[in-house]
Amino acid sequence: MADPPGCCRSCATCLLCLYSCQWITAKKEKRKGLRTTKCDYSWFLFLFCVFLFTLVWLYFAIIILNDFHNFNEFIFKQRKLWLDWSLLLLIATAVLITYSAVLLVLALCLQLCGQPLKLHWLHKTLLILTALVVAAAFIGLGIKWAEEWRSARVSLQATGPFLHIGIVGGMTLLAWPLASFIYRTHNTGLKVFLLFVYCMVMIALYLAPLGITSPCIMEENQLPPKPALVGHRGAPMLAPENTLMSLYKAVDCDVQVFETDVMVSADGVPFLMHDEELTRTTNVQAVFPERAALNSTTFNWTDLQQLDAGSWFLERRPFPTVQSLSAGDRYQVTEQRIPSLEQALEAAKQSNISIMFDLRPENHSDYQSFVNATLEVILQSGIPLQQVLWLPDGFREQVKQQAPGIQQVYGRKKLQNEKEPLLHVNLPYQDMSSEEIRQYRQDNISVNLYVVNQPWLFSVLWCSGVSSVTTNACQVLKEMKHPIWLLPSSTYLMIWIVVDCTSFLAILWAFLLLK
């Protein structure tokens, strides 16, 4: 068989060398009578499937970056080891996708050059390992982090139109090696089968936009107002979480609400702390090594004031933004101490922002006394009660009676025939669809969704009409003046028609040119 036009013998030899790990010139290959067997085609199909499998995992890896700080915190609680695991995830994923993509490109080029697809056993072994690693990653995701499957559903509202264009383009390019193979093979049954499958896939892709829905496919004048920003523990990318510095940094980001977590010390002083243990965000292991593993509520306020609540931020660098802090900010970080709720309320009052908090731990035997101590501090602080957003469900009725001006925020959806209608809900962003958000907006129910860090996610929720979002990245979302993309339905329809027609003509050209 002669080399196809445009495929020089040296190029074919190099491709064979990389794919088969053997230095076989095209001339020797013909002399030996090597041909692609059914087994070789089976390995090519396996390679193609592994590439698609890894590509899907890459998509998931990018999507879960929004929530990866939670994973880092989870690992720290389990192993007392802090590391930005997202970096390792992206590096490993990039290696796997690059390897499978290079092999696939080599195979397609060999097919176009009319050379045999003799995959070396080393590549076969590595492909099997790649498939196993990605499968293990998906299984682990399903077991330990199942809510990320719902995150993927939300992400499709942002990426659906662009994924459609990309997949159509990829399948169109695949028409060239497919046409080359069909004209070379003498197996009529295989030809018919491949053409049938390819045509069915392309027809499905051409019609896919009929099932693609996105809240950002709308007219410009229909875009809801930009959601308000709620600082998750302040501005944790710019300052140590749950500190006064973090609160003031959040104010600089134009947040309207400072979201935090409150615990009560052994001597009855409410203070800001998220974890039940102090090890992650203070130097308790150095100051009180024998008590480091105890619950935060077992420490009195005098002990808590001895702890450094800022230096860990510079040492562990929970976010990449830590590296860009100024010298002044770095010094201020080292001066941070655990703030009391009283100090936080005073700062919120002076900054004219609201404060929303959880009261932890909910299962504590003295939880009612925690509620009483917290309410007492709020009422004595002089902050306007409408600036306080109360999240805890425990003893909520008592709170309503003693401080009716406090805004009650519920961590659930509204119930049918509810006696007292909800005015504020606070839920994970995965728990509400765009349709539910629109319905709540029509019912004048304020919806806050957490934790939203990536611009693509913020854009989808903005288009959906959410009232506010809780975020770690207030400095990023503050700068967004518009969703990442917004398409009128007429423009999207035009793009759909152009992409599908261009693809069809390109496929037709490939089959006619290679005939």
From TrEMBL:
Keyword Transmembrane present in the record's keywords: the answer is yes
One Gene Ontology cellular component annotation held by this UniProt entry: plasma membrane
Q: Which Pfam families match?
A: GDPD
The record, for InterPro entries, names: GP_PDE_dom (IPR030395), PLC-like_Pdiesterase_TIM-brl (IPR017946)
GO terms for biological process, alphabetical: lipid metabolic process
Q: Which residues form a coiled coil?
A: none
Q: Report the membrane topology from the UniProt record.
A: Multi-pass membrane protein
Q: Where is the signal peptide?
A: none
TM segment ranges = 41-65, 85-113, 125-143, 163-183, 192-212, 493-514
Q: Which domain of life is it from?
A: Eukaryota
Q: Where in the cell is it found?
A: Membrane
SUPFAM superfamilies in the cross-refs: PLC-like phosphodiesterases (SSF51695)
Q: What keywords tag this UniProt record?
A: Glycoprotein, Hydrolase, Membrane, Transmembrane, Transmembrane helix
Report the residue ranges that make up the GP-PDE domain in this protein. Answer: 227-481
Sequence similarity:
Belongs to the glycerophosphoryl diester phosphodiesterase family.
This protein is called GDPD2 inositolphosphodiesterase
- The organism named in the record is Spizaetus tyrannus
